[in-house]
Amino acid sequence: MNPESVVEATERSIKAATHLTDLDAGAVAALRALAVRIGTADPEKDNVTLPTYLKFCAALKLTPESRGVEIGASEQKGKLATLRALRGGKNDTAEGTG
């Protein structure tokens, strides 16, 4: 089985995103164009398209983070875990010390 293309995955995400309305049509069209470009771009020379695509996905709430979904949230409990998550998993010592 062939892996799903970015275009196919994008279309599936758009179809599943019941929160999108006609007001989002321009951003959705731009996201589709970026998905096509990712499939044809030379990754060695194009370092802009993929990050831009991901920003559009986030703006349209098509990523877990943009929807407020916390990966592994059931394992994290308490204020300390929340603080660590906000700090990117860093320990409690100041950066560069300890």
Question: What attributes characterize this protein structure?
Answer:
98 residues, mainly alpha, 4 helices, 0% strand
Report a brief summary of the structure.
The protein has 98 residues and is mainly α. It has helices at 6-16, 25-40, 49-59, 78-86.
Structure description:
The termini are far apart. The protein has 98 residues and is mainly alpha-helical. It has helices at 6-16, 25-40, 49-59, 78-86. It has a domain at 6-69. The model has no long low-confidence stretch (mean pLDDT 85).
Secondary-structure blueprint of this entry?
Elements: H1 6-16, H2 25-40, H3 49-59, H4 78-86
Helix pairs in contact: 1-2, 2-3
Total of helices: 4
Biggest sheet architecture: none
Give the % helix.
40-55%
The Rg value, from CA coordinates, equals 18 Å
- Oligomer category: single chain
Number of strands: 0
**Structural category:** mainly alpha
Described by the principal axes of the CA atoms, the overall outline is globular
> What string, H for helix and E for strand, traces the elements in order?
HHHH
Portion in beta strands: under 5%
Instruction: Report mean pLDDT, rounded to a whole number.
Output: 85
Detail the poorly predicted runs: none
